[in-house]
Every structure is written in structure tokens, then in C-alpha cells.
Amino acid sequence: MACQISSTVLKNEFEISCLNTTVAGRLHRWMPLRILTSLRFFLGLFACLFRYRPDLVHIHSTSYSSFFEKSFMLFACRLISTHAVIHIHGGYFEKFYRDTIFKFFVRFALNRADRVVVVSHCWRHFFEQVCRKQICVLPNCAAEMFFIGNQKPTGGSDILFVGRFAPEKGILELLESIKLLREESIGNRVVIVGGSDNHEELTQVKESISAKRIEKVQLVLDAVPEKVLEFLKKAAIFVLPSHQEGLPIALLEAMAAGLPVVVSPVGGIVDVVTDCENGFLVPAGESRLFADRIKQLLEDQNLRQRMGARNYESALESHHPERSGERLAVLYRSILENQ
Q: Are residues 155 and 292 in the same domain?
């Protein structure tokens, strides 16, 4: 969202105030602290509502506890007749909806919004079956600093992964792919940028690297944007063998940096990557095929450059903050002009 609201059209046309409701992963595991955090967010929202008297509130949510928390924020907005949009992120909402016993509440909450915003077309199809509201697709964007694809240094050789060290990101299958590449004497450095609030997940990754005896693997736990950008400049390929996704920002950043990608066809990824055109789509869990596609790109510099150039152009056209801001402005106008 920070990328989108930095766009010229939004800053010129709307007066926007932000309330940060990001919750650190570790807070989710201790319910009393999570409840206190939610109460703090509610107080912040009420303060904003009565101080600024906004015409519209744009609420960002994922699933599980985040969705229930943001639903009550949505109810508060509608209670005082303020327009509200709920914007769903992340790749777990379908599982959350399938597993919850509160399906009626989920449908009721979504139907209270003026619009339900999702990040990809596949999620639009899902939400159309869940609620009666108009579903708007607003793809994620990459920060402007990542758009270096037309000036990216040549000669990068790293295999880069950016994401949480979680099983659903396919990181263990990726390590199996790297092991297969090492057996074929492909020794490119592998950089894994991310981290985890779950100590067991991090330990599992380290133990897998040790058990497979994989050399030249660098784990980077501090994934600040500036550091991610430096690793993108040194990379030859971006990989993300996820099992579930919304539309990953890390993928869009890699595309903006002009990298070819090897990714899984899950969630919104299929909206931005076409197999064999700007990257390779490999089913999650297919470590052998992932290794083969990585090897194919490493051995063909022309293919890397061609796919990387297409990714940069695609990101510039569809996932630049200015484009995203323009779409957001259209959404806001459509609600406010029909109030």
C-alpha cells in the first residue's frame, strides 16, 4: 500500500492518512498480546475516524485472526456511514474459509464493504462465489527503487530466493533442487533472503542444508528492501517454488529488476508469468523439474536476458506504483462519485 499511495495521481487528488496495523508474526502465537494489539488498532481507527472524518476507509486484511479483526473495523466504519473497502492479501484465504465454522460471518463481513479488492483474477473468481459484492482486481506493485531492469549490471550468477522460511514457500523442495544441481557440477551461489518468526522453521532449513551437504548457500535473515535490491543486482535467476500465494511482492521486485524467474503456478503468479515467455512455471514440489529449469537458464545467457527484459517491461507497464495508484484512484472515484 505504501508504494501505491506514493503515486502522483493519488497524492494530487486525495488527502490520505495511514494507520499501520501490521502485526509481527510472533504476536499471533500469544493470544492475550494479540487481543491487546487489536484493541490498540481499534483505538487508533476510532481516533482517525473522529479526527479526520474520512469519506472512505481502505482496510487491508489477510485471513484468520487478521480477517476477524479487520471485519470489526469495517463494521465500525459502516456504523458511522463511512464508505469502506476491504482489500484481501495473502494466499491462505480459501483454506481459511474452507476450515472456519464462521462462514456466515465471513460472508456477512464481506458484504458490508463497498468493494472487495483482491490481488489476482483467480482470487476474484473465488470471492465471487463467497459474497455478493463487486470484486475488484488490484495487482500488487513493486517499490520504484526496484525498477532497474533496463540498467541491471550484467554478469550476475546467483540463484535468489526471497520469502519466509516456511514449508508452504517450498524452500525445502528448493534445497532438494539445489542438491540435484550440485550433483551436476553446477556451483552457482544460492542466496536465501527472508527469515521466520518460527525458530523451528529456521532450524529445519539449516539442518536441511547441512544434511544435503550443500555448499555456497547464504542465508540472509535481514530482508530490508535495500539489501534485497543489492542481491537482485547480483542474481542471474529468481526462484519461488511456493505451494500457496496471493501475488508475491518479491516476484514483482525480481521482475522489475529484470530477472528471469522459475516459479510455481499458484495464486496470482499465473497472472504475471507465462511459461517459457518471461519465466518457467513448475508445479510445486517438482524438485527435479525445478532443477532442470534453473539449469536451462543458467546455461543460456540469451534466454535469461530475453526473459528478464520481458519481465521488466511487464512490471513497468502493470506493477509500477504509478500504474497501481491510477487503478486505486479509479476505484476511489467509483465509490465516492456514486455515494
A: yes
